[in-house]
Specification:
By secondary structure, the chain is an all-alpha fold. The protein has one domain: Four Helix Bundle (Hemerythrin (Met), subunit A) (Up-down Bundle), CATH 1.20.120. Helices cover 67% and strands 2% of the residues.
């Protein structure tokens, strides 16, 4: 059982909810220091994504179920943050993140996770020795350590930058430094989303054969007395050759 690793996953999800709860409070409460304190806590919560993987390897808790649980935690954290920053308005009346960003990320997440779920039914996992990517370029872009580390770093810097824009009012002012910082965060958001969408391409491309296997199956037939459904392949069965004289 992945006890330590799963506890870390649950912990970082709960920490994200606490951070958002603090940032989403009524604006009449002007505890600016509390808003700023949430930024390093946000960085720690994102770092815990790597920490739970290390814990799983350290205590030999690696398992397919644990990997799926870790992915679920990643999805909750990432999509919650994108959505939250998209509904927060700056002093100029503009959202910190454009609305199309969480829409694109939600669509990307749903499509890739559906494909991965289908591939998992065929014995293929998102990462590891039985990963669903067969080509070298696909493995490098989606499952390699540099790709996952680089994407995690981009998300960490991006979300912390958005957190600073939210927590530090002077960074959102019309001063040159504020405008420059806002432009840098906006560029980082675009780069992070673009890299995320690029990493989804191999998953969808290599996963097409598993999705196609579903459409190639015959309609389900009920197994009498068991209340279960089974699928039959659409390929024609070879005629049986009678051995009777």
């Amino acid at each position: 059982m992945c006890i330590v690793a799963n506890l870390l996953t649950v912990g970082r999800v709960l920490l994200i909810f606490v951070i958002i709860g603090v940032w989403a409070r009524e604006e009449t409460v002007t505890w600016w220091w509390l808003d700023l304190l949430m930024v390093p806590l946000l960085a720690w919560a994102i770092f815990m994504d790597a920490l739970d993987g290390w814990a799983a390897r350290k205590w030999h808790e690696e398992s397919e179920a644990g990997a799926l649980f870790d992915i679920a935690g990643d999805r909750i954290v990432e999509l919650t943050l994108w959505t939250f920053f998209a509904i927060r308005i700056d002093p100029d009346g503009l959202p910190l993140v454009a609305l199309w960003v969480p829409v694109a990320m939600i669509a990307r997440t749903v499509l890739t996770d559906v494909v991965r779920a289908v591939a998992f039914g065929h014995g293929r996992t998102p990462f590891g020795a039985r990963g669903m990517q067969d080509t070298a370029w696909a493995r490098q872009l989606t499952a390699s350590r540099w790709s996952r580390g680089w994407y995690g770093g981009m998300k960490a810097v991006c979300f912390c930058g958005l957190g600073l824009l939210l927590a530090w009012p002077s960074l959102r002012s019309a001063a040159l430094a504020g405008i420059t910082f806002r432009a840098a965060v906006d560029a980082l958001v675009l780069a992070t989303v673009a890299f995320s969408l690029a990493r989804a391409v191999p998953v969808l491309w290599d996963g097409r054969r598993y999705v196609g296997a579903i459409s190639a199956a015959r309609p389900a037939r009920r197994v009498e007395g068991r209340g279960q459904w089974r699928y039959r392949r659409s390929t024609k069965e070879k005629p049986r050759v009678s051995t009777e004289g």
